[in-house]
Every structure is written in structure tokens, then in C-alpha cells.
């Protein structure tokens, strides 16, 4: 007997209740509970996949960050079949619990190759260890200063763009406040918080003041909308915050579509994010 999929199993278990939900609009955003119902039913959009193309070159090195008070890894990624020595650089900021290798593990080197083959202007992506404090200072550990001051020195050039996923989206938007010259800021599922009670529960900020000084939603007037792209799934717990970001910052591109806070969604939107960045090389 074949394996029964999760979506089929849930639909069978709920039976006519599913039809009732659809008929009354409960699986839309019109009524409360819509996103939760779609999550339960697995109706969160198609998972993305890593392109079946050769990965571009990946290099890893360790450097000492005075701003963070520790050694960190830097991962440099580029598309295949392109001379990467002079490519412009886009920073990539990882999600919480990840590190500099997070994007390589997600398959980004293959996405870069696929993007160039689809006509996107080539660029390199550099990821660096940022810790778990949303790329803002915690005690003597200051990843935001590392991004603003040390990374350009390590690279020998200022990155022209930044992309971030989840916690990395918070960090990218925070960097955009001080780097107004960034030509592209692309964020997916940005982990943003409407109030301190929500942020406090994440245990990522050392104090309410530290959060308040850095929360992007409190400083939307300092984020350049013309260089901003925002992607978030409607079943993502940060969807409401993403909508607030879109409404307040008026990004050049935005998509709030079916999807959860997971790899499947990020793999689906990565091609769009890379096209957005590449159009601003």
C-alpha cells in the first residue's frame, strides 16, 4: 500500500469539515483562524526546490572580529562559470540558530548559477557568523558594528546589497538604516516584533531598550523603500509584521503569499530575491 501524504490524511480525517471551512471562507484571511486552518491542512503553497545546476564556488575562511570579540567564519559564494574575483558583493544574513554556512546548506550556490543562466547579472554572496541576538549588540558582542565596519574591510569593498531571512531579515533592515547607500535590501520572513512582549519571548535581546533602539518597525522612515523587497508567507507567524513593514516602508517589490516560516517557502522565493538584487547590481 502506498504511503498516505500528510495533506490527504488530514483532509480525510476532517471530512466534510474541510468543505465547510472552505465554504465559509475560514481558509482565507477574511476571518480569524484562516492561517491556522491552512497550516493544519497543509495548504501553504508549493515547496521550492534547489535548482539542478552546478553549484558555484564556495570558500570559507576564519577571521577575528573585534566587534564580536571572537573568531567568525566568512563564506563566499558565487555562480559557476563566472570569474568571481571582481563580482559585486551582496551580504547574506542567516536565520537564528544558523551561521555563515547556513545559506550554502540551503543551496544558494546552485541558485546563483541558475539566476545567471536565467539572465540575472552575476554577483557574489558573502555570509558571516552573526550569533543569535538579531544582529544587534548584546553585551560586548556587536554584530551590527561587524557588518558596518569590519566586513567591508575584510572584503576590500562595500557590499552593494544585503539579503536576510528570518532573524537575518531583522539584521538586514537594521543595517539598511545606517547604510542608506545600499542598492538592494531583500528580506524573506523577516522576524519583526510589534511590541516588547512579543520580542521578549524570543530571548534574543538583552533589554527592552536594546530592542526598542533596533526594531525596524519603529524606524520605517529610515528605511529606503525604493531599494527594499519583502517576501513573507501568509501562514508565517511574522506575516502581520511583514504587512506592517510593507504598508509603512512602501517597498519597490513585495509578496505576501501562501507559505510558512520554513525552508520550503524560502527555497520558493529565493529566485525572486536574487532577481531583485541582480536588477540593482
Topology pattern, helix = H, strand = E: HHHEEEHHEHEHEHHEHEH
Low-pLDDT runs of 5+ residues are: 1-32
Task: Domain count, please report it.
Answer: 2
| Count of beta strands | 8
Largest sheet: 8 strands, mixed
Outline type:
globular
Number of helices: 11
Helix and strand content put the structural class at alpha/beta
Could you state the CATH homologous superfamily of the largest domain?
Answer: Alpha/Beta hydrolase fold, catalytic domain
CATH architecture of the largest domain, please? 3-Layer(aba) Sandwich
Strand order of the largest sheet: 1-2-4-3-5-6-7-8
Strand content: 15-25%
Overall pLDDT? 89
How much helical structure, as a percent, in the residues?
25-40%
State the distance separating the first and last CA atoms. Answer: 52 Å
CATH fold category name of the largest domain: Rossmann fold
User: What Rg, in angstroms, do the CA atoms define?
Assistant: 20 Å
What is the level 1 CATH name of the largest domain? Alpha Beta
Catalytic activity: 2 alpha,alpha'-trehalose 6-mycolate = alpha,alpha'-trehalose 6,6'-bismycolate + alpha,alpha-trehalose; an acyl-CoA + a 1,2-diacyl-sn-glycerol = a triacyl-sn-glycerol + CoA
Organism: Herbihabitans rhizosphaerae
GO molecular function, one term: hydrolase activity
Keywords: Acyltransferase, Hydrolase, Transferase
What does this structure look like?
The structure is a single chain. With 281 residues, this protein is of the alpha/beta class. The protein has helices spanning 6-14, 16-24, 34-41, 102-106, 108-117, 143-155, 167-178, 196-200, 208-214, 239-249, 263-278; strands at 58-65, 70-77, 89-93, 124-128, 161-165, 184-188, 228-233, 253-257. An eight-stranded mixed β-sheet has the order 1-2-4-3-5-6-7-8, with helices on both faces. 44% of the residues are buried. The N and C termini lie far apart (52 Å). The protein has eleven helices and eight strands. Helix 5 crosses helix 11. It is globular.
Amino acid at each position: 500500500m502506498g504511503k498516505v501524504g500528510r495533506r490527504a490524511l488530514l483532509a480525510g480525517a476532517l471530512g466534510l469539515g474541510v468543505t465547510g471551512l472552505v465554504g465559509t471562507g475560514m481558509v482565507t484571511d477574511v476571518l480569524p483562524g484562516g492561517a491556522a486552518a491552512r497550516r493544519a491542512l497543509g495548504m501553504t503553497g508549493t515547496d521550492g526546490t534547489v535548482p539542478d545546476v552546478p553549484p558555484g564556488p564556495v570558500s570559507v575562511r576564519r577571521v577575528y572580529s573585534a566587534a564580536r570579540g571572537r573568531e567568525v567564519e566568512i563564506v563566499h559564494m558565487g555562480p559557476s562559470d563566472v570569474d568571481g574575483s571582481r563580482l559585486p558583493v551582496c551580504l547574506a544574513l542567516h536565520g537564528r540558530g544558523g551561521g555563515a554556512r547556513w545559506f550554502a546548506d540551503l543551496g544558494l550556490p546552485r541558485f546563483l548559477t541558475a539566476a545567471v543562466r536565467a539572465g540575472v547579472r552575476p554577483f557574489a554572496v558573502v555570509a558571516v557568523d552573526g550569533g543569535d541576538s538579531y544582529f544587534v549588540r548584546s553585551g560586548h558582542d556587536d554584530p551590527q558594528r561587524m557588518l558596518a565596519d569590519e566586513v567591508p574591510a575584510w572584503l576590500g569593498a562595500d557590499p552593494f546589497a544585503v539579503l536576510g531571512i528570518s532573524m537575518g531579515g531583522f539584521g538586514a533592515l537594521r543595517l539598511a538604516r545606517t547604510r542608506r547607500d545600499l542598492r538592494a535590501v531583500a528580506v524573506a520572513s523577516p522576524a519583526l516584533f510589534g511590541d516588547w512582549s512579543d520580542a521578549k519571548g524570543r530571548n534574543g535581546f538583552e533589554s527592552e531598550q536594546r530592542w526598542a533602539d533596533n526594531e525596524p518597525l519603529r524606524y520605517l522612515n529610515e528605511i529606503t523603500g525604493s531599494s527594499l523587497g519583502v517576501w513573507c508567507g501568509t501562514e508565517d507567524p511574522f506575516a502581520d509584521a511583514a504587512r506592517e513593514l510593507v504598508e509603512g516602508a512602501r517597498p519597490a517589490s513585495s509578496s505576501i503569499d501562501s507559505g510558512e516560516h520554513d525552508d520550503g517557502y524560502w527555497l520558493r522565493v529565493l529566485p525572486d530575491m536574487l532577481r531583485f538584487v541582480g536588477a540593482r547590481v
